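STRUCTURE:
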């Protein structure tokens, strides 16, 4: 699939979006996450990601829904509220993929 624009990330249907996101590099995902966060008033990608990670670490009890946790952190910490109801879901999907890819990178370097 060709590189997606910011507009594509917001407009694609869920099935196409998930397939496209899974094929992206961590850097591409971070660019899209940063752009969406910026649109929602977030001016510090690193701080928001750190907050997501800290919240996930604190919320490790059995049965916790990590996807919902990420959505809630984003919704609660990005100043501009989304006009589209699913924008937090889309952003949470991107953030979750970033975390998974970075975790895999860490594990693969430890095995080497």
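SEQUENCE:
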């Amino acid at each position: 699939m060709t590189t997606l624009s910011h507009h594509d990330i917001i407009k694609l249907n869920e099935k196409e979006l998930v397939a496209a996101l899974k094929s992206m590099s961590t850097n591409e995902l971070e660019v899209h996450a940063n752009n969406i966060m910026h649109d929602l008033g977030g001016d510090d990608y690193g701080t928001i990601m750190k907050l997501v990670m800290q919240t996930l670490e604190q919320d490790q009890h059995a049965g916790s829904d990590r996807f919902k946790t990420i959505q809630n952190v984003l919704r609660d910490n990005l100043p501009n509220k989304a006009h589209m109801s699913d924008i937090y879901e889309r952003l949470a999907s991107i953030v979750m993929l970033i975390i998974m890819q970075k975790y895999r990178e860490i594990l693969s370097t430890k095995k080497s």
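REMARK: The CA atoms of residues 42 and 74 lie 9 Å apart.
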